[in-house]
Each structure stands twice: as structure tokens, then as C-alpha cells.
Amino acid sequence: MANFSKSNVPQFSMDVYQNEYLPEGGREVNAIVTVTATGGGTIGSSSPQVYPQGGGPSAAVAVMVDCSGSMDYPPTKMRGARDATAAAIDALRDGTHFAVIGGTHVATEVYPGGGRLAIADATTREQAKRALRGLAAGGGTAIGTWLRLADRLLNSADVTIRHGILLTDGRNEHESPEDLRATLQACAGRFTCDARGVGTDWEVKEVTGIASALLGSADIVADPAGLAADFTRMMETAMGKEVADVSLRVWTPVGTAIRFVKQVAPTVEDLTTRRTEAGPRAGDYPTGSWGDESRDYHLCVEVPAAGIGQEMLAARVSLVVPQADNSTQNPGAQGLVRALWTDDMTASTSINPQVAHYTGQAELAQAIQQGLDLRKAGDFDGATAKLGRAVQLAGASGNADTAKLLAKVVDVVDAATGTVRLKTKVAEADEMTLETRSTKTVRVKK
Questions:
Q1: What is the mean pLDDT of residues 235-257?
Q2: Cα–Cα distance measured from residue 48 to residue 338, given in angstroms and rounded to the nearest whole number
Q3: 3-class SS of residue 318
Q4: How far, CA to CA in Å, does 223 sit from each of 79, 288, 325, 403?
Q5: What is the pLDDT of residue 444?
Q6: Could you give the C-alpha distances from 279 to 256, 257, 271, 300, in angstroms and in order?
Q7: Sign of the CA dihedral 199, 138, 235, 194?
Q8: Average pLDDT over residues 226-245
Q9: Verdict on whether the full-model pTM lies above 0.85
Q10: Is residue 301 within a helix (H) or strand (E), and if so which, with residue range?
Q11: How far apart are CA 351 and CA 366, in angstroms?
């Protein structure tokens, strides 16, 4: 384990779990890299006032509230959105820059306006909550315009953390998918964003795609009454972030190739295509903002074939953590991934428990998504097979939350063998909840 610490950033540590033994001719090396940040003590606090006024990392937050016409059907959605945004404002730490954006087919500055950000204190919180009373539903939905306004506002502040919270209740019908993709590409790396869908008339892949591109979380709030508690949790988590733009740097020697780099806990997120080159044979993979937390990453490397007894360094993994002045970057914690060829069949065929667990978790997420897609397409046999496999994987890995969500979509005959029957009637909220949360994983049992 290696450590890196510096004032104003968490202390990072890294552990590598792998079976380094390969059979003769073996070329695939798998490792789970666990990265842990400690030192802030802010995540999960019951109060936003974790730091004294003026202390803690500087942050800017933009809350984007869907104000399209559908938010009035039923009226509880608009009321819930106002209450939730007010709750999020209450959770802001003093000194945080913030803005509220109303989203329709255009983006409107609700508070403070004038292309500015407000500074959170008792006065501005009350002013912002008064401004929320003017939010009314009407118009279309063009989420890209909301994100671009948030980007302009957030990047007008010289702060460490930039974060967005986006709420929508409908499909992005007033701009093309290409426009939204272009917006997400433009905003990626500039701020993180949590996305929430309220009700059941929104598109899961749109909301999860926004969160994925901007390295935030996605979830469903089927009942608008649950919005305020969810927004409070999101804002408290955002206030617990201490350092942004942390990257996982992977160096590999000549002759090797990276097959994939995935975050596998707390959610599955494929980072492979997000690599940016970082010098000879090294690449950086973005991980977003960190507070006190731990995440797991699955690295798969293809190495040249070698003879019995030979050994090589397959990859060197480190963290790149921005300095407080953002002028340079310091390498953080570091871990080594090795390959050692052996004729001991027991050693070379053993699968590391962490690698096996997260391989199953990634397959679980894929099986759920494929199964639901097949069900929507009318391929009920294919859907049954995929969702049955998902039930089997959820049971084997101890992912009880996902198992409960699956049981609302299928009748489980035998979890161990994955024998299930599709339910004839499934509540839309249950199906959307399963799809939205399909990538959530559980940590490997110790």
C-alpha cells in the first residue's frame, strides 16, 4: 500500500488484488485496484456545516430544475421539485457559490441571475428559496441548454469543486440526441453532475447517460414526495467532496495492451474510452471528485506470452491529484500489477476472489440491461434467460438490493440456478428502478 497526503486534499491509499500467476502462454492479467481517500470526515455528515465558515474546499453548485409543462401533471411534481431544491439550498455550506436554473426548451437563471453565482449564507439561502416560489411549469425539454448554462456559471468561479444536480421528469424532446451528446462531450471534465428522474415518463438511458458522462450518480425518484430527502443527500455528498479531477494513471511496458479499465464499485462505469495520453506508454482515466470514500477499479492487461519462470511488471497504477494552486499535478498512491508464468496448474488457474466478484457484478449489470431491453422488444424467452442469469448472479454475490428489485420484475423459482418466470404485470416504476440501479454493486465479502 502506498500513501499520498497534502493539505487541503484527502490522503489516498491504493491496494492491488490479483492472481499474478499465468500458465505457459497465458496473456491476460486481471487486477482489482482499490483506491481509498481518508482525512476529511465529511461524507455522510448530518449537517452541512462540517467546516468553519470560510474553511474547507471551495465549491460551486448549480441546481437544474425541470420546469417543462409535464411537471404540472400531477402538480405534486412541481411542488416536490421546489421543496427539494429548497432542501438542497439549506444543505449548502457557507461560502459555497451556487445558482438555480429553470429548465424548459431554454435555460433560465432563477437565482441569482445576471450570469452570476451567489455565495451561500443565511441571506442568500432565503433569497433563493423565495425565488423558487416563482417556478412554474410550461414549455418543452432541452436538457443540453440547461447543462451549458450550468457550465458557464460554474466555470465563472475560481473554485476547487464544480458540481451540478439535474432533475427531469420527461424525455429530451426539444433537442436532438446528437446535440445532447455534443453538450456532454463539451462539459465532461468541467463539472460533475448527479441526475434524477422523477415520476415514470422520462428515459432511463438519457438520465443515466448524463450522469455517466459527467461522472455523477443517477437514480429514480418515483414519488415526488421523496425528492427533498434525495436532494439533501446529494447536496451533503457534494459538500463532502474535497478534491476534483483526480485521475487513475496506468503505465504499461512495451508489448502490452490495455483491454479495459472499469470502475466496479460503488457502480460499474467503463472508463476505457475516456483515456487521455499522459506521456510514453501512460494514460489517464478520469475518476471525478473525491471526499472520504473508497472505490474499486478492474484493470485488464494483455501481456506478451512468456516461458515458465519468467516475470514482468504488467502495469503500474498511480493517482494524479491536482495541487491546490492547479499549476501542477502530484502523483498520488501507487500500485503494481505483475505477471509470473508457472507450470503449477493450481496457482495459474485460481481466480482472485475480488476479480471473480467484480467480473460477476459487471455481468450482472449487463444481464439486467439486456434482459429489460429484450422484454421491451417482445423477446420474452431471451428476457427470461438474461434476467434469470441476473437473479443467479445477484444471489451468488450477495447483492440483496438488486435481488429485491429483480423480484419485482420476475417470479423467482430457483435463484441458485437462475430459474425465473417473467411477471405478466410489472409496475413501470419497478422496471425503471431496476434499470436505473442496475450498475450499483456490492463490495466483495471479506
A1: 95
A2: 43
A3: strand
A4: 12, 29, 43, 22
A5: 80
A6: 16, 15, 18, 20
A7: positive
A8: 95
A9: yes
A10: strand 293-302
A11: 21
